[in-house]
Amino acid sequence: MLLALMLCYGGFTALCLSMDRHHTELLGHKPSVRRRHGLKIAGWILLALSLWAAVSKTGWSLGLVEWSAVLMLSALVLVLLLPYRPRLALSLAGLSLLASPVAALAQQ
Amino acid sequence: MKEGFRQAMAWLHTWTGLIFGWLLFAIFLTGTLAYFKDEISHWMQPEIPARSVSSEASLALAQDYLQQHAPGASRWLIDLPSAREPGLSVRWQQSPAKQGERGRFTEKRLDPQTGTEVQGRETRGGEFFYRFHFQLQMPYPWGRWLSTIAAMVMFIGLITGIITHKKIFKDFFTFRPRKGQRSWLDGHNAVGVLVLPFHLMITYSSLVIFMSMVMPASILASYKGDVRAFFDDVFPASSVPELAGKPGQLAPMAPLLERAREQWSGGRVQRLTVNNPGDANASVVLVRDSADRVVHDVSSAVTFNGVTGQLLSSTPQQPVAMAIAGSFYGLHMGRFAGPVVRWLYFIFGLASTALIGTGLVIWLGKRQLKHAKSAVMPFELRLVEVLNIASMSGLTVAVAAFFWANRLLPVEMTNRSDWEVNSFFIVWGLSVIHAMVRRGRNAWVEQLALAALLFCAVPLLNALTTPYHLGTTLPQGDWMMAGFDLACLVSGLFLAWAAWKMQRSGQVPVATRQRAKPITLEREAN
Amino acid sequence: MKVKTRSLPVSYRLAVTSRVLAAVVGGYVVAALASVSLTMWLPMPRAEAVVTGMMTSFLVYLCAVLWCFACRSAWQAWLGVIVPSGVLAAISGVAYWLGQS
Fold it and tell me: What is the pLDDT of residue B241?
């Protein structure tokens, strides 16, 4: 479940950054059109990958449940961190993405 | 109503949310606690040890016990130990229940290692919260009807909330704290949208769980009034073979466990029901552990003849419709959940509770701003304020009181389990009175502070009244007991923080608060 | 509802009450009849059709309730509940009669 969580959190952060308002809040300037698109696509791909990570380990039944849980948890964590610890929120996303290949290997 | 669709939905959301909010808060809080009902029960009966023993050994002990103590009973029930419920319990029904009535059972807890009776202090334990959240301490079937009606209103509240929340995607990641009413609304929206799959699942599944009771029209029409036939179709193993009238020796049941597992390609047996144990046509029904899989399958029970061991009925393939209903049931109950997912269920349950709570606070807060200048609140708003306080902080104090009563009431006291429940309701009632005589903010602070004190002190109380406190449970690794103490401590700290915030926000001068623009739901809808 | 007057007019309260009744009672009737219609017409074994009908009935109830408050007047609320009830009752009736013969 850890891999799915990491990918989900990273995906949500990407989607969050793809929005003008949040990008400005977190990184100080509005994103270019290319960056916005890139972040959106990256975000959705990461969410899809997290679904694959959840389902491949435990099957569809339990996997879908775990994926939904991970989705909701990572969204809550991100939205709670954003106003209080924005830098932590972003670095967590970075760390998650860096650590995810390790988690993927550990899951095999 | 003439102002447009969104406005109408906002109106509906606001009023259904208010009128049913207090009840729904109680349902959701107790329901959330119920996810840890086994752990709560274990803490409330610390004398009963948690030992893991094989199913076969426990079953043999249970069978011996029942053969000795209830040979002439019409039905035996044996609940085998599991990871979360390490007790072995047996029940028997001396004579069959009349058609349509619930049977009367005698229940005993056995030590899974020795087969002797264990006596923990008499308590309802975590079952109290579980039963309360759908029966509401009302006589059968009124409580279930009311809680299911509340569930339908919750469903309407969720959907109207989604419709009303115009910027549901734009504001997906938006939470702006420290901005008064704005923050409460952001919080309400955040906890609503981000945990929406859970809210919808829990609400709709609770409707499905009681659908036979509240929406029986299709049963009556399709089965021409023969409701029994419908239930026999859905629960094939519940039909009991006719009494032979001749006596029969019940064979040892332990080998049946393996045969059932063959039928299920793995899995565990959770419960055995023996019908007419002394009879030649005695039947043994083995029910699968619902923790085995997400989808609850009521037809997965396997039935054997108790004397000959002949297979009477096995697990048919679960039809799609039943599988869908079973999914709702299984997802709601969450029995399949391991420790991590179970904690997530708990967190999301608290989120649903917070959704309702923030809604109630916002409802009142918005209207209080309009009356901030005058010293006296209109009666309706004062009523809402009292109900808000009593149903939220008052309920929390009552939960703490329930745990305190468990430790303070003498173990040998008669009807002590009833008195634990009475303590819960008495304290809840007192919180209503307290909320009536104290001014709003003071009542909040005092009740939250009291709840904080009571919860933080639970580990201390535990140490003073039993030997199963953190000093022994942590080194031993008894995580069920230690976890409860620690969870109470953390809850107490959270409540203390809430009380402190409440106290502080009362100290901000009224002028600065009024400068914040009053946010209206109608404006949000635009 | 941004009504500035101290108390709301009686006609308003009557209209709201009417809508509530239409939603609660009428909505239940529509939902029940919808579940019966679905059950009678679904080409599945009886028990499965019943379970399907019951599970979907709550969605119908939801739509009925939303209609009763979204429509322009209390009269329309009742109309929106009575007409579908009639249609669904007829559909169920046909299925029942077909099943009899």
Answer: 75
- Mean pLDDT throughout B206-214? 96
Note whether B194 contacts C: Cβ–Cβ < 8 A. Answer: no
Q: What distance in Å separates residue A101's CA from the closest CA in chain B? A: 22
User: Mean pLDDT throughout B180-205?
Assistant: 96
CA separation, residue A44 to residues A3, A30, A78, B198, B263 (Å)? 16, 20, 16, 21, 42
Angstrom distance (rounded) from CA B284 to CA B278: 12
pLDDT score for B475: 83
- Please state, rounded to an integer, the average pLDDT across all residues of chain C: 91
Range in A9-23, B54-68, B414-428 with the lowest mean pLDDT: B54-68
Task: Tell me if residue A11 falls in helix, strand or coil.
Answer: helix
What residues of chain A lie within 8 A of the CB of B195, using their CB? 72, 76
DSSP state, residue B250: P
Report the domain count for chain C. 1
State which residues form the domain around A88: 2-107
Displacement of CA C21 from its chain's centroid (Å) = 11
Between chain A and chain B, the number of residue pairs with CB atoms below 8 A apart is 52
Residue C81 lies in a domain: yes
Instruction: Tell me how far the alpha carbon of residue B138 is from its chain's centroid.
Output: 16
CA B244 to each of CA B59, B66, B273, B317: distance values in angstroms, whole numbers, following the listed order: 25, 21, 18, 30
How far apart are alpha carbons B318 and C96 in whole angstroms? 27
User: B240: which 2 tokens?
Assistant: 């009991």
Express as a percent the part of chain B with pLDDT over 70. 93
Tokens linked to B420 = 């634990």
Which residue from B252, B256, B282 is spatially nearest to B269, judged by alpha carbons?
A: B256
Task: Take residue C73 and report the two structure tokens written for it.
Answer: 């007047």
Examine residue C3 and state whether it is found in any structural domain, yes or no.
Answer: no
Q: How far is the alpha carbon of A29 from chain B, nearest alpha carbon, in Å?
A: 18
- Collect contacts of B100-103 with beta carbons under 8 A, ≥24 apart: B102/B140, B103/B75
With beta carbons under 8 A apart, name residues in chain A contacting B176.
83
Whether C66 maps to a domain, the answer reads yes
Residue C100 has pLDDT above 80, yes or no: no
Q: Are B485 and B458 in contact (CB under 8 A)?
A: yes
Question: For the segment B71-106, what is each residue's pLDDT rounded down to a tens digit?
Answer: 888 888 888 887 777 778 888 887 776 655 666 778
Omega into A101 within 30° of 0, i.e. cis?
no
Least confident of B263-272, B422-431, C38-47: B263-272
Long-range contacts of the stretch B255-259 (C-beta < 8 A, 24+): B255/B309, B256/B284, B256/B286, B256/B304, B256/B309, B257/B55, B257/B56, B257/B59, B257/B286, B259/B302, B259/B304, B259/B311
Over range A23-50, report the average pLDDT. Answer: 93
Q: Do B347 and A73 touch (CB under 8 A)?
A: yes
Of B173, B294, B351, the CB nearest to A82: B173
Token code pair at residue B339: 């420790």
Token pair recorded at residue B153? 């209103």
The tally of domains found in chain A comes to 1
Q: Where are the domains of chain B?
A: 5-45+130-208+335-525
Which residue range forms the structural domain that includes residue C61?
18-100
